[in-house]
Amino acid sequence: MAAVLQAGDSAPDFTLPRDGKGEISLGDFKGGKLVLYFYPKDDTSGCTAEAIAFNGLTKEFAAAGATIVGASPDPVKMHDKFRDKYELTFPLVADEAKQMLEAYGVWVEKSMYGRKYMGVERTTFLIGPDGKIARVWRKVKVPGHAEEVLAAAKSL
């Protein structure tokens, strides 16, 4: 298991396919702030609420010099449907191989009704213009989260 990333650590590099074709790399955001949020699955209640909350604040994030990127293990085709259904305006990256999820320490053992399984722990990273992690939110509760991340992005 990867070490737990903390504020001050360098953000692990990645290049992944994104919704709408093409790829996104960490280096694409050098010199700007990146809100990288990991979520378990497209079009589920919590993940949809989180995406809608971030989407509703995209202009405010942009004004703070921050770009939002969502990441999950779902394939690009699912991301495309999710993006279109909720009119999401920020990119979604697909990590089907789970290499990035593991590098960021968010692919973890979970338990539901006594059954253990591997899944994404809802986590958000605020990455500074220097490529270092400025802040980490683990085991995110969706209500109010996007606003809290925005406040942190504004103060970075």
Structure description:
The longest helix is centred in the N-terminal third of the chain and has 12 residues, at 45-56. The protein has one domain: Glutaredoxin. The strands form three sheets. A five-stranded mixed β-sheet has the order 5-4-3-8-9. It has a two-stranded antiparallel sheet with strand order 1-2. The model has no long low-confidence stretch (mean pLDDT 96). The radius of gyration is 14 Å and the shape is globular. 29% of the residues lie in helices and 28% in strands. The protein contains five helices and nine strands. The N and C termini lie far apart (30 Å). With 156 residues, it is an alpha/beta fold.
SSE map:
Layout: E1 15-17, E2 23-25, E3 33-38, H1 45-56, H2 58-63, E4 66-72, H3 76-86, E5 92-94, H4 99-103, E6 107-112, E7 115-120, E8 123-127, E9 133-137, H5 145-155
Parallel strand pairs: 3-4, 4-5
Antiparallel strand pairs: 1-2, 3-8, 6-7, 8-9
User: What is the N-to-C succession of helices and strands?
Assistant: EEEHHEHEHEEEEH
Q: Briefly note the structural class of the backbone.
A: alpha/beta
Mean pLDDT: 96
Helix content: 25-40%
**What kind of oligomer do you see?**
single chain
What is the correct CATH architecture?
3-Layer(aba) Sandwich
Largest sheet: 5 strands, mixed
The named CATH superfamily: Glutaredoxin
What portion of residues belong to β-strands?
25-35%
Q: Based on Cα principal axes, name the global outline.
A: globular
The overall number of domains is 1
CATH topology descriptor: Glutaredoxin
Helix count from the secondary structure assignment: 5
Strand arrangement, major sheet: 5-4-3-8-9
Question: What is the first-to-last residue Cα distance?
Answer: 30 Å
Low-confidence segments, given as residue ranges, are: none
- The top-level CATH class is Alpha Beta
